[in-house]
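Task: sequence design from structure.
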């Protein structure tokens, strides 16, 4: 009988499901969408039950598409978006929608608790800033604003641990998602009970911590009937999407770095020693004994999607005539524009900005306009602005003692040869591009493969599954141009942040 591994990715707008062969080849894939709810300003929440419904549809679709028998799935791995806070009762019922990573409803609680406990004290334990996007403030928000929900909460789960629960009936907390909770000891990977008490989080709502690749249970009869997997299929705990994406890009050694170019952008540097910086994000890696220091930006592929949506009417019409996408035509006109966009600089802060400035009021800016500028300048400057934000994060990481060597690109923007080359030129780093377009789900699958014994270790798994299809060496002449733009980029924000913060 053939043996496959199944990966589940719980993203912000949809789940992705993929079945992989042992060598990392995708045998079949599917997806299922679900909404984000915005009931009030600063709120962004989802219904975890809708995640599960989408997963069930996508798993059935994928197995059917690939003509794969349920019993041929040797193991299941799950990755998920960060900073969920799913309140569950003892019977496994979801008691409220979960705020997600972009939710900032707990800003006042952050200020109040941060002052009371001390932000330096909190950072010393967890290695991350006490900001409303994280899980802890959301738990405290339940406690203050939904006391009945909090009183009936048995466990607080993360996105991947929720799907693991629906599959197995087991409440778990894996290591990599611990970073969302400020009572998590980031040095030792355990709950800090003193910090729990200081923050006002009851330790009882926190599940036991397990390694990301640990088999936490098997698919139950009920789950099998709902999602189409075979009863008894092993399920591993899974990990944070950034950790799985980093693993799926082949990053398993210190200094290796994943560069993310999906809807958002950023990078994850693999470390074998604890290095924290309040300007960045620190979590455990999915690989035991390692951390990842992350830069998470708002600007990424979403910048290009916005540009295409608002300004690509001509390219969409022309693309239909030529049989190419409007984004390909955007690439073409950007490629005809000189590196540095003739002095035009873009700040990609299209929904505030995360690392390293942590400014929810930051705004997107085009600087350097004159009558000589064309649409190509706008497109290329946008690509360069995203690359400049990547460089900003890399340089802050270097200041923290985490030097990135070569970058391993993943996400949709990695398919653009021009954009990837721009990132290499701006950062001065070699960029290699793995062949798989599904690095995040591949990472989840590698966890499953190691957990069930298909791979002996993570290094073997990466050697078998991750293949490099191309690489980009930095052009040093272009880098000199970008060095000048980078200085303008940094100065623009410093000069404009007071204006950006004005309330209308």
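Answer:
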């Amino acid at each position: 009988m053939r043996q496959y591994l199944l990966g589940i990715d719980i993203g912000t707008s949809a789940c992705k499901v993929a079945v992989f062969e042992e060598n990392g080849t995708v045998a079949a894939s599917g997806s299922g969408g679900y909404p984000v709810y915005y009931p009030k300003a600063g709120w962004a929440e989802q219904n975890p039950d809708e995640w599960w419904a989408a997963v069930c549809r996508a798993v059935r679709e994928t197995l059917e598409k690939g003509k794969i028998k349920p019993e041929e799935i040797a193991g299941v791995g799950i990755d998920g978006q960060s900073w969920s806070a799913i309140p569950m009762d003892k019977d496994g019922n979801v008691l409220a929608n979960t705020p997600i990573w972009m939710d900032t409803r707990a800003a006042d609680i952050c200020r109040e608790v941060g002052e009371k406990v001390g932000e330096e004290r909190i950072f010393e334990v967890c290695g991350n800033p006490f900001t409303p996007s994280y899980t802890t403030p959301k738990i405290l928000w339940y406690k203050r604003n939904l006391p009945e929900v909090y009183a009936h909460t048995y466990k607080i789960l993360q996105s991947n641990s929720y799907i693991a629960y629906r599959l197995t009936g087991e409440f778990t907390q894996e290591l990599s998602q611990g970073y969302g909770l400020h009572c998590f000891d980031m040095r030792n990977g355990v709950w800090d009970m003193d910090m729990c008490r200081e923050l006002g989080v009851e330790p009882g709502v926190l599940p036991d911590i397990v390694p990301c690749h640990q088999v936490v249970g098997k698919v139950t009869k009920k789950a099998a009937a709902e999602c189409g997997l075979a009863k008894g299929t092993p399920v591993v705990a899974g990990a944070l999407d950034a950790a799985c994406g980093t693993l799926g890009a082949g990053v398993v050694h210190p200094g290796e770095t994943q560069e993310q170019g999906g809807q958002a952008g950023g990078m994850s540097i693999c470390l074998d020693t604890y290095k924290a910086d309040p300007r960045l994000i620190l979590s455990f890696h999915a690989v035991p004994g390692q951390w990842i220091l992350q830069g998470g930006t708002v600007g990424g592929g979403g910048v290009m999607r916005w540009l295409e949506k608002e300004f690509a009417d001509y390219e969409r019409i022309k693309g239909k005539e030529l049989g190419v996408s409007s984004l390909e035509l955007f690439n073409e006109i950007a490629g005809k524009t000189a590196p540095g966009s003739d002095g035009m600089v873009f700040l990609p802060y299209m929904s505030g900005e995360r690392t390293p400035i942590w400014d929810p009021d930051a705004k997107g800016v085009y600087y350097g306009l004159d009558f000589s500028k064309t649409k190509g300048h706008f497109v290329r400057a946008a690509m360069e602005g995203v690359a400049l934000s990547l460089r900003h994060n890399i340089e802050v990481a270097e200041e923290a003692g985490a030097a990135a060597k070569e970058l391993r690109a993943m996400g949709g923007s990695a398919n653009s040869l021009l954009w990837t080359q721009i990132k290499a030129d701006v950062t001065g780093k070699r960029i290699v591009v793995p062949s798989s377009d599904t690095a995040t789900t591949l990472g989840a699958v590698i966890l499953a493969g190691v957990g069930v014994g298909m791979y002996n270790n993570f290094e073997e798994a990466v050697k078998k599954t991750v293949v490099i299809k191309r690489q980009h060496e930095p052009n040093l002449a272009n880098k000199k141009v970008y060095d000048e733009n980078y200085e303008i980029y940094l100065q623009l924000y410093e000069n404009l942040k007071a204006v950006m913060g004005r309330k209308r």
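DSSP finds 17 helices and 24 strands in the chain.
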